[in-house]
Amino acid sequence: MKILIIFTICVLVFAGCTTVESQKMRAERDQLLKNYEDLREENSELKVKDRITDTLLGKWKFLSLEMAESGVTQEVAEAKAALYALELRNLTLEFFEEKGIYHYRGKKGGTEVFGQWTVITIRYGDEPFPFIRFIRRTGPELEKLLFAATEDGRALGLSSAPGWDAARDMSISVTPDRLYLTMHGKMQSGPAGWVQSGGVRCYFERVEK
Known about the structure:
The protein has about 210 residues and is α+β, with helices and mostly antiparallel strands. The chain folds into two domains: about 1-40; about 50-205, Lipocalin (Beta Barrel). About 35% of the residues lie in helices and about 40% in strands. The chain is built from four helices and ten strands, in the order ααβαββββαβββββ. β6 (about 170-175) and β7 (about 180-185) form a beta hairpin. The longest helix is centred in the N-terminal third of the chain and has 41 residues, at about 1-40.
């Protein structure tokens, strides 16, 4: 009888421990799912587009042009980028909103550009990456102005090389004081997730009013 009582107590204790452990595991699982959903919500397409759009508004001055491509074309590409950057020294771009429509205008010497723009996102894995599309109204297309792109979309007239994407949309990254526009960057998956490599990158700094 005593053995039966001891056995019953052990079973109840084990069952209680199992229940507590199961509840703990469920709570941890629920928390992980919540963290994942919070992260997805934070990086939702709409929030990314709104954040980029709000930060982009204002006036920007050209800083530099950089080749992020590797391989046999590196030295040629860097030389072409350095020479063309000299032509962009006085370039300014302004992004503004008027009656619910987003416009851009820019000036480089006697060349002026004007048109509309919109931010889009393309999802790689679970993360949306921002790109910007320009609709030209007057002046040259921005691809030609910023990157001396040819009619077939080759930045600086360079032939396609590994690490370059054929997409015409520019990727965009912006902080309160820096703007980065990249043409022909290729999206690649790595240990830290999706990253953009290669391409031609244009840097701007914000002009304080």
